[in-house]
Amino acid sequence: MDKLIDLLVNATIAFFAWRLTNLSRDRADRAAEKESLRTQADALTVAVLDLRHAAATNRILWEGPAERGRSFLLALMSYAGGVARAQALGASDRLALTAGMGNAAETLAGDRRATKQHVATVREPVLRLATAAAPLLRHQDATVASTAAELTTAALAEGEDTARVEAALTAFESAVRAALEPAPSRWRPRLRRRAR
Fold this sequence. Notes:
mainly alpha
């Protein structure tokens, strides 16, 4: 009889130890998943802001009306300088105009080259955005995945639609916050019923 009682006690202890180990492991897994989601969400948010900053810088430096006016004035001055230099060397009017156009074309080509090189700098932030978005697009929470997709699409959209990006960012942050909230305990409803 004592052996049977010892066996039952040992089995009970083993069962509770196994159950507590599983509960502890599940809790640690959930905590690791939440931390991973936080890290991935932060990476996506930073990538979106980095891309927006790079695109805004590109627009300010190379696409604004002041910049286009500057390019026009540089080309005009280069044209006039080429004409004056050719006339000073004794070239005919037709040859002087051609020389001026050549100088203007060279100036515009250099400006165009610089613009394209600067636009290429947006490639890195786009790559970071895609890298940050990839794991979130496959997230098990459908709301997190769909809002991450919308945020990525809004960030990559042409133009300066900041309202769309802000709305997508707010929706994404809300979805992540909801996914990070702890699941309701199975014991709480019973405790509330007993308290009444």
